[in-house]
Amino acid sequence: MNRQVAVTALTRTATSTQNHRMPIKQFRAWIFAAFLAIATLSAQAKSNILLILVDDLGYGDLSSYGAPDLKSPAIDTLMSSGMRFDSFYANCPVCSPTRAALLAGTYPDLVGVPGVIRTYPQNNWGWLSPQAVLLPKPLKAAGYDTAIVGKWHLGLESPNRPNERGFDHFKGFLCDMIDDYYKHRRHGINYFRENEKEIDPPGHATDLFTQWAIDYLNDRKRKQKPFFLYLAYNAPHTPIQPPKEWFEKVKARENGITDRRAKLVALIEHMDHGIGQVIAALKNNGQDKNTLIIFSSDNGGQLSVGARCGNHRGGKQDMYEGGLKVPTCAVWPAHIRPGTRSNIHGISMDFYPTLCEVAGARVPSYVKGISLLSTFLGKPQKLERDLVFVRREGGGRYNGQDYHAFRRGDWKLVHNQPDEPLKLYNLKDDPLETTDLARKNRQMYNTLKAALRLHYQRAGRVPWQKPAR
């Protein structure tokens, strides 16, 4: 029974009951109980949301995406159980900006995160804008309990910690990465927290996040409120540190595999196993049939540690397709047809309006992401829009400057290093981005360059460093 049918039935019953002269005090009590039942029915009808974001997973590093030496049965099952996206983009080829875009629903430099937020101020390239309304806030307003487990990476201190930005529950770490999957420190400092409390749990980080996600799902089992769980694994980010038994299993199975590749494969397979445990908990709790599951990565794989990014140029940190295209899927029983695939050019910031539409939540006017709900439901959807990719960084090859890319239709403008010229590619004819057409098609080059410049003018008005005190 949906909410409107229930309200209609209540109205008719109330009229009939009053016609039989029920005492007014008893009638009011009956009305209150009936409306309370409808409110409960409405809450129960809303789908739970599980958003799984993994860290540095290359487009070619799942068996379902063509990896010949890797087994990822849990994620592969998700891919086949719903809609797989073959041309999905992360908002940036590095961590923080994509996470800001996902949770704020717009381009990361428009909310103060053009680069990586780090623990050292002299190497920090972002400050999350207090004006950004993060995704858990509209979901909370729509009646959801909100939780994040795992990697935050959007601020170390007030007002940019998870509980202050809309999450009811946080258990994970605040910083950019951890230097050891077992010791859980960054530059010798412990950033692990349960809400505002510092914690120091033993165990491999992947196992901890898996168990904490299961604990949350179990806790929500008998609760009336729908939930939004943002499960942000830090695997397979460096250091490439799988449990020993997982590494040994890969080495024994894959003849001729290098130690470097085997470590990464083992770390991904270990994470896949954890995701399988989380999905099993959903099913054991009876929550799976009313839960929308989204899986994605924050950027492409890191080539220097053995990652594979499919048939694409580049990897993590690159503005080429290998740094930006990520494996993505959505599973939603009775809503998304299993085994479907989409070539639509979605991007991380689209999750915000999509989930708000699913939840019946209000989308702030500044949001530039576009809801993909129509695509989820198998309805035609055409996304005619530009896509902008930016990153600000200092040191090394970046020399304290920006680099960026801009896509319009099949055309893509790429500025992959600050000291390189902008290059123009036609992705339809040249998917590997090998032939620069900047001189041959000067009109398109100038058009995209002017559009990119306008974006930078808008973003330039947004502060991205911690305000001076």
Which features does this protein show?
disordered N terminus; 469 residues; Alkaline Phosphatase, subunit A; globular; four-stranded antiparallel sheet; 14 strands; 3 domains; 15% strand; alpha/beta; Arylsulfatase, C-terminal domain; ten-stranded mixed sheet
Topology of this protein?
Layout: H1 3-19, H2 24-45, E1 48-54, H3 73-81, E2 83-85, H4 95-104, H5 136-141, E3 145-151, E4 169-173, E5 192-194, E6 197-198, H6 205-219, E7 227-232, H7 244-253, H8 259-284, E8 291-297, H9 321-324, E9 328-331, E10 340-342, H10 351-359, H11 373-376, E11 386-392, E12 402-408, E13 411-415, E14 423-426, H12 442-459
Parallel strand pairs: 1-7, 1-8, 2-10, 3-4, 3-7
Antiparallel strand pairs: 2-9, 4-5, 5-6, 8-9, 11-12, 12-13, 13-14
Task: Give structural notes.
Helix 6 (205-219) packs parallel to helix 8 (259-284). The protein is globular. Strand 12 and strand 13 form a beta hairpin. The strands form two sheets. A ten-stranded mixed β-sheet has the order 6-5-4-3-7-1-8-9-2-10. Strands 11-12-13-14 form a four-stranded antiparallel β-sheet, covered by helices on one side. 32% of the residues lie in helices and 15% in strands. Residues 1-19 and 30-43 have low confidence and may be disordered. The chain has three domains: 3-37; 45-376, 3-Layer(aba) Sandwich (Alkaline Phosphatase, subunit A), CATH 3.40.720; 386-459, Arylsulfatase, C-terminal domain (2-Layer Sandwich). The chain has 469 residues and is α/β, with parallel strands linked by helices. The longest helix is centred in the middle third of the chain and has 26 residues, at 259-284. The protein is built from twelve helices and 14 strands. It has helices spanning 3-19, 24-45, 73-81, 95-104, 136-141, 205-219, 244-253, 259-284, 321-324, 351-359, 373-376, 442-459; strands at 48-54, 83-85, 145-151, 169-173, 192-194, 197-198, 227-232, 291-297, 328-331, 340-342, 386-392, 402-408, 411-415, 423-426. It starts with a helix and ends in a 10-residue tail after the last helix.
